[in-house]
Write a structure and sequence with these properties.
The chain contains 5 helices and 12 strands. With 192 residues, the protein is an alpha/beta fold. The strands form 3 sheets. A 7-stranded mixed β-sheet has the order 2-1-3-4-12-11-10. Strands 5-6-9 form a 3-stranded mixed β-sheet. The relative contact order is 0.18.
């Protein structure tokens, strides 16, 4: 059976995530309504603009359904703005968060749009991600990781991919490369 993975489609690079899911043989499903969450194995909160996505979650009445999705034990991945929304709190012009991961997201802490860059995972990252190219665009810094948060990838010593249970948050945009390891990790996460 093909994994059905939702991509929150309020704003952001939804199409690139859908294409990455297709490359790994999963069915990507755009999510704009609570009913779209029903038969999904996992959910991606994409990058984009966290204020816009937070307002969209409110407008579409999706805050509680996304929390319920996570509490049902199904895996989540938040990339860039999605990582901000998964965090327990955000700083630097804070936005409301789902509070689903024990980290604090410092919005745009890697700089503005003109400061965008790509870098490789540090050599002391999880061996599964050595050589991973990370694309940062107005990226959040993930800080204050709680004791249950595992750091999987670092760039320049800073955590940029973290896992807590079957929830993943990354500061960068894995959908903007042809490397599918982050999407593969998401669909391999067990229900909890």
């Amino acid at each position: 059976m093909t994994d059905r993975v939702g991509v929150l489609a309020i704003q952001g690079d939804v199409d690139a995530h859908l294409a990455a899911l297709e490359r790994i043989g999963a069915e990507g499903v755009p999510v704009l309504r609570e009913k779209h969450l029903a038969d999904l194995q996992a959910l991606i909160l994409p990058g984009g603009e966290s204020t816009t996505i937070a307002k969209g979650l409110e407008r579409l009445q999706l805050w509680q359904p996304v929390r319920a999705f996570a509490e049902s034990g199904r895996p989540l991945l938040g990339t860039c703005a999605g990582a901000i929304l998964l965090a327990r709190a955000s700083r630097n012009h804070p936005v409301p968060t789902l509070g689903l991961m024990d980290v604090v997201a410092l919005r745009n802490d890697y700089g503005t749009q003109v400061n965008s860059f790509a870098a490789s995972a540090d050599p002391d990252s999880d061996p599964r991600f050595l050589g991973l190219r990370c694309v940062f665009i107005r990226a959040p810094r993930l800080t204050g990781a709680g004791p249950d948060v595992e750091i999987l990838v670092r760039v320049d010593g800073e955590p940029v991919l973290v896992r807590q249970g079957n929830r993943l948050a990354c500061s960068f945009h894995p959908e903007l490369t042809q490397d599918t390891r982050i999407h593969e990790l998401l669909v391999s996460q067990p229900l909890r």
